[in-house]
Design brief:
Blueprint: H1 12-23, H2 40-55, E1 59-62, E2 68-72, E3 82-86, H3 100-116, E4 124-128, H4 142-147, H5 153-157, H6 167-173, E5 189-195, H7 200-204, E6 208-214, E7 216-225, E8 229-230, H8 242-258, E9 265-274, E10 280-281, E11 284-293, H9 296-317, E12 320-329, E13 332-333, H10 336-349, E14 353-358, H11 363-367, E15 373-378, H12 394-412
Helix pairs in contact: 1-3, 1-12, 3-12, 8-9, 10-12
The structure holds zinc ion.
The site of zinc ion has 5 residues, from loops.
Length: 416
């Protein structure tokens, strides 16, 4: 089957106008958006998206998690559809593009197919996953997690926001609790276009990130226990300094992450020192280690070396330790065929591209468990995201959507 021609392009103005139109709903206070999940603003955004889908002749399905699936029929309706999309919800002080670009980029794919009179064998379904951000209701990537069977729907319905409102009731209140069972759809392939949310593509002047992996992570909470003592009168050899232990562990985590470049990262973020007094040697410290890598073996190796290192450090300082794993997410390896479709598309269209690892979580990370999946990334200014100042250029959005267009159409197979 012939690949789509390089002259096949999306309508850049229409994509950009749609993004700006959506951004009018739930405006923030500094030029961005506050369209948190299952709020009135989310409901309004969904209605606008549905209106656009209706105008494009798509058939809308909504599942019990409120996820929206807009289907463009294929010439062989019995084939599994190619899915494309992301999320329309935002952080309380979110940007105009995080998630929105992926949903409206997907809509632009089907609008462009209509303009060009192109039919595909496989149906194409444009998707808006509910509550990707996890700001109002934890966890993030909520509906895609239920869809992939990782999260329990009934349990998720009972999650409450800071005002005590339940997710399930709020979903019903805004009128977007559908009737379709979650996770029953069969997906031929899923593609998600997203802004990078990091600085690499812009720094290197590259148009397209071909996302090969998603970072896995581990959070370890460490408690070091020494002995509180006077900082002036305790002889140095007699000290059991939990603060010094923490300092050495911080250094260790950094060194270990540096041993697994370019992709691994590690840091101690949260730190508590007891009793936190200027003339008492710290008797106890509690801190969390955050390590990430796209490779499970590396993540496990880092974890092992950190535990060994903590043991050695504590023995030398005569302090005790406790390590508890408080968070964990396995690394994601995206589907080789879908990744190739993205890379081939960028190549065919003449856009510069490089492989990239997603440092943040995305709906695609969960869907990858149940269907072949890949992501397309475009740069964002200063790598800034989850911030109202989040910015991209129209050219970047266009390049990303063009690559999405080709990857989707190539996979859905053009009818000659
Ligand atoms: Zn996002």
């Amino acid at each position: 089957m012939a690949a789509p021609g390089e002259n096949l392009r999306i309508n850049s103005d229409r994509l950009w106008d749609s993004i700006m139109e959506m951004a009018k709903i739930g405006p923030g206070i500094a030029g961005g958006n506050n369209r948190q999940t299952v709020t009135d603003e989310d409901g309004e955004g969904r209605h606008l998206f549905k209106r656009w889908c209706d105008e494009a002749g798509l058939e809308m399905g909504v599942d019990e998690m409120g996820t929206m699936f807009a289907r463009r029929e294929g010439t062989d309706p019995s084939l599994q559809p190619v899915y494309v999309g992301s999320h329309l919800d935002t952080q309380p002080t979110g940007g105009k593009y995080d998630g929105v670009l992926g949903v409206l980029g997907g809509l632009e794919v089907v609008r462009s197919l209509d303009d060009l009179g192109i039919k595909t064998k496989h149906p194409i379904v444009v998707t808006n996953w509910t509550n990707e951000e996890g700001a109002r209701f934890a966890p993030a990537m909520m509906a895609s997690g239920v869809f992939a069977g990782v999260l329990d729907q009934a349990e998720i319905y009972s999650h409450v926001d800071k005002d005590g409102k339940k997710f399930g009731e709020e979903l019903e209140r805004i009128g977007w609790k559908g009737t379709e069972k979650v996770g029953e759809r069969k997906i031929h392939a899923f593609f998600e276009l997203h802004i990078e949310q990091g600085p690499i593509l812009e720094d290197e002047g590259i148009d397209i990130g071909v996302v090969t992996h998603g970072q896995g992570l581990k959070w370890l909470q460490v408690t070091l226990t020494g002995r509180e003592a006077h900082t002036g009168s305790t002889p140095m050899p007699k000290r059991r300094n939990a603060g010094l232990g923490m300092a050495r562990v911080i250094e260790l985590v950094h060194e270990i992450a540096m041993d697994y470049q370019p992709d691994a990262v590690g840091a101690v973020g949260h730190m508590e020192v007891y009793p936190n007094s200027r003339n008492i040697i710290a008797g106890r410290t509690v801190f969390t280690i955050d390590i990430r890598s796209p490779e499970k073996e590396v993540l496990d190796a880092m974890d092992g070396r950190i535990r060994e290192g903590i043991d050695t450090i504590c023995e030398a300082l005569d302090i005790k330790y406790q390590i508890e794993q408080v968070g964990h997410f396995d690394p994601v390896t995206f589907d080789a065929g879908c990744v190739k479709a993205v890379r081939d598309a960028a190549e065919r269209l003449g856009y510069t591209h490089r492989n990239i690892v997603s440092g943040a979580g995305h709906d695609a990370c969960w869907i990858n468990r149940v269907a072949p999946t890949a992501m397309v990334m475009c740069p964002c200014v200063d790598g800034l995201s989850h911030n109202e100042a989040e910015e991209i250029t129209k050219e970047w959005a266009t390049a990303g959507a063009d690559v999405l267009f080709h990857a989707v159409v190539d996979t859905a197979v053009i009818v000659e």
